[in-house]
Prior knowledge:
By secondary structure, the protein is of the alpha/beta class. The protein has two domains: 5-141, 3-Layer(aba) Sandwich (Rossmann fold); 176-371, Orthogonal Bundle (Hypothetical protein af1432). It is 59% helix and 7% strand. The chain has helices spanning 13-23, 35-45, 63-72, 91-99, 112-175, 182-200, 208-217, 230-233, 241-248, 250-260, 267-279, 300-315, 326-334, 343-371; strands at 5-9, 28-32, 49-55, 82-86, 104-107. A five-stranded parallel sheet has the order 2-1-3-4-5, sandwiched between helices. Helix 2 (35-45) runs parallel beside helix 3, helix 6 runs antiparallel to helix 14 and helix 12 (300-315) crosses helix 13. The longest helix has 64 residues, at 112-175. Mean pLDDT is 87; it is low at 375-380.
Amino acid sequence: MADRSILVVDDNEINRGILGEIFKESYNIIEAENGVEAIKAMEERGDELAAILLDIVMPEMDGYAVLEAMQEKDNLNDKIPVLMITADTSTEAERTSYQKGAADVIHKPFDPVIVDRRVSRTVELYDHKNNLESQVDDQTRVLKKQFVYLKKQEEKLKYSNERVIDTIATIVEFRSNESSYHLKRIKGFVRILGLAAMNNYPELGLNPHLLDVITQASAMHDIGKISVPDTILLKPGRLTNEEFEVMKSHTTRGSEVIEMIKDVQDKEYYEISLDICRHHHERYDGGGYPDGLKGDECSIAAQLTAIADVYDALVSDRVYKAAFPTDKAYEMIKNGECGVFSPKIMACFEFARTDMEKLVAQTKAAEIAEKGYSPVSQES
Length: 380
């Protein structure tokens, strides 16, 4: 017995018999006298149907109504080919049949050879289409699983990068005797400034992903201070010229440290961390160090970190000074007392001022609560 069936739907028993004879060697034959019986047969044995031969004019439920019902049932006529069997040779009958989802139209009286060939060709086309759709569905499911897996791996790698960066940066922070909130503020300032840049200056090339990487990588800006002697790093007074040269070397020494951990970092994190570490003391007029970069020779990542670092240095207590009030720090940077920054960066600094001052207030309040005392601030 054949594995697949053809459903013959016609109110004329003779027509059903003739059509059944044509296909009985290749298919199981299921008969229905009208559309109601046809719908019931589809519900019971739809999975095994290779095709449906459907008369148009029938009592109770005609062929067009059957096509409409099949469309309502998850577009069933897209999965099972329906060939209309009709004595109506008008263009209107054919047009209506195709519009309602029929795969082909065969006219009565029919020739067995023509019917057999047209049905076989239609079944082959539908089998091929359904097989392709099934393969696409299978491949889509595989791709979705792979995508989920890769996303998880990406999250793990991102977490690993962040852990490496935060761990090393925290060591330097501890050695420098700086507040544990220093890195939180630096990253917060960079993000706030970066959002202002992204929203106002699209030509700077920032996007959400890149800003995430820059924000995290900014924590590595002072990693080179691990090589600066305590006598200089923790000196409460003004540095001599020779001492300042040693202090300035933290940019190049930090780059060397980042090179050493290159193999445990994602390439993008590594490149941006290296750039920030080496260039966060460069200035727009070329008056910075270590390379004297001028204008847009300095990346947006380094520029954002540079102004964030200067601002945090001003509003924070350091061994050599008390914190300045936020309004004083803002004016000092705007007046060029802390080096020259690009006009766009300065505009972003102005846009971001309120949010940056809120972050300062929040972290200082947390620090006071943690330590149980209020740091002494220098009055303006």
